[in-house]
Amino acid sequence: MFALTTKGIIGDRQVVVKDVYLCYKCIMTEFKFWKERLSEHIKLITLIESDNKILSRIEEAAKLILKAFQDGKQLLICGNGGSASDSQHIATEFVSRFFIDRKALNAEALTVNTSSLTAIGNDYSFDKVFSRQVEAKGERGDVLIGISTSGNSKNVIEAINVAKEMGIITIGLTGNNKDTMIYKVSDCCIGVPSDVTPRIQEAHILIGHMICDFVEYELFGKTGWPRNKAMEADGFVKSSRCKARKS
User: Fold this and answer.
1) Are 60 and 22 found together in one domain?
2) How far is 144 from 108, CA to CA, in rounded Å?
3) Statement to judge: residues 110 and 9 lie in one domain
4) φ/ψ bin of 72: left (φ > 0), alpha (ψ from -120 to 50), beta (otherwise)
């Protein structure tokens, strides 16, 4: 590009070079914005990868969910805003599939029934929109995941408290603050080491994906075959298919 400018007169060349420089500076400024965000994400994921305490919590949570499914129990998930979307996303990975064609797993997000959410919010309070559903749907031995970037969402805390009273295993998925109520009251809490909400949410869905991957693999293996004979007898169907996901 700079070689082409030598064909013009000096005055024109100076103008062209200046324009190219300004354009290049503009592009680099835009790339800086994206690179900063990507760098934040990469640093956080690297930090999680290098922290054995966090990894042990993730593994503990995955094994609790695995055991619940092996025992014929269900997984309930709740959260607000982006965490509500994550609840639905994670539940769907279990109900549909992650990688393997296999029997559906019983997981439900408590964020989807607008009639229940609005009725409970109106008749009681928004703090109870999840706990009333836990009371209605949950049973001893089930697992509840409560997702909150702040770790202080009142309706998630209320759901966890009710779940514990019912003998439901509770897992928290939060941000960095270990002084939060969710961190304190959950049976197992995975605290993402960040105070930046978007980065925490990005880590949450990665952790959710890893847990889905682990549970699916442990239950069905690479070919979709149940690893637990009792589960096979209980109707978990063998499958020879193992396709890449379309989405």
Assistant:
1) no
2) 10
3) no
4) left
Residue 47 within any structural domain of the chain: no
pLDDT of residue 2: 40
DSSP code string of 141-161: T-EEEEE-SSS--HHHHHHHH
- C-beta separation of 184 from 135 below 8 A: no
The residue behind tokens 């300004």 is: 22
Q: Is 224 part of a structural domain of the chain?
A: yes
**Contact by Cβ (8 Å): 163, 171:** no
Q: What is the pLDDT of residue 228?
A: 55
Q: State yes or no: pLDDT of 38 exceeds 80.
A: yes
Tell whether 243 is covered by a domain.
Answer: no
Annotate 157-178 with b (16+ C-beta within 10 A) or e (fewer).
bbbbebbeeeebbbbbbbbeee
Identify the three-state secondary structure at position 172: strand
User: What Å distances lie between residue 140 and 144, 166, 169, 189, CA to CA?
Assistant: 11, 6, 8, 19
Under 8 Å CB-to-CB from 82, ≥6 apart: which residues? Answer: 149, 197, 201
Q: For residue 45, is it within any domain?
A: no
The pLDDT-based confidence of 178 (bands split at 50, 70, 90) is confident
State which residues form the domain around 67. Answer: 52-233
CATH number at residue 135: 3.40.50.10490
86 and 32 in one domain?
no
Q: How many structural domains are present in the chain?
A: 2
Percent of the chain with pLDDT over 90: 74
